[in-house]
Amino acid sequence: MRKPLIAGNWKMNKTVSEAVDFVNRLKSHIPLNPPGDSFRGMSDVEVVICPTFVTLSEVGKILEGSSIKLGAQNMYMQENGAYTGEISPLMLKELGCRYVIIGHSERREYFKEDNKLINAKIKLALKYQLRPILCVGETLSEYQDNQTIDVVRTEIREGLAGIDEEQMSQVAIAYEPIWAIGTGETATPSDANKVHKIIRKIISDMFDAKTGEKTRIQYGGSVKPDNMSALMEQPDIDGALVGGASLSAESFIRIVNYDKKD
Ligand code: PGA
């Protein structure tokens, strides 16, 4: 049984004071260490918040003692050194990060990250017990040219090259069709599931069937409170990487509680 993984990717949004305000609001809805069943995310769903680097410290302090986990949106592929403007996994670790998003399509597009760099980042994240969320997905023109599977296969094979089964147990994949990110367009749940199923097969072929079965594959791209439960009904969709809709505490909570009536 794969535990759903729901991560909020704030991207370049929220100043420190806005982030503090947001997380405090989240806390008022989500009791920390709740007795019983007050918030389902504590037991049967894993919830992660990925704020900007400069807000990680404050957000981490507020989340301390809660089972909402802290994640980063990126990291560099070196521990330290003369890499102006970059952030090392050691720094993320010290701030309490448990997850790190690697290879988001915006990093690939605007910062020219390629699969080789992404692979180096994944290996270094694993070395420091940061769980990578590897993002894969096709552009609109690749989608229209029926290249989705070729694109995700290459991104997965090259992004995860040299990783063993044990390390793979720490990795989650986020399938994010780029044409669906921030556009209000989503793949239909059944179309998304078809790609997820193929991704699982690619992972089974690279590692083994058990690893394929255990790997969590999130869907990302215009996930909202209104479409989350239909996506989650699909057998190979194991959670979501949520951008825009994670910026409001109310909508993020509704997404996390996707199978509960309001
Ligand atoms: P979106 O972003 O939910 O705003 O489409 C998702 C993502 O880029 O991770």
The DSSP helix count reads 12
Query: What is the correct CATH architecture?
Result: Alpha-Beta Barrel
| Broad shape | globular
CATH class: Alpha Beta
Ligands present:
2-phosphoglycolic acid
The portion of residues assigned to helices is: 40-55%
Low-confidence stretches: 32-42
What is the terminal separation in angstroms? 26 Å
Approximately what portion of the residues adopt beta-strand conformation?
5-15%
Could you characterize the architecture of this molecule?
This protein has twelve helices and eight strands. The chain has one domain: Aldolase class I (TIM Barrel), CATH 3.20.20. The chain is α/β, with parallel strands linked by helices and 262 residues long. Helices cover 42% and strands 15% of the residues. Helix 1 packs parallel to helix 2. It binds 2-phosphoglycolic acid.
Summarize the structure.
42% of the residues lie in helices and 15% in strands.
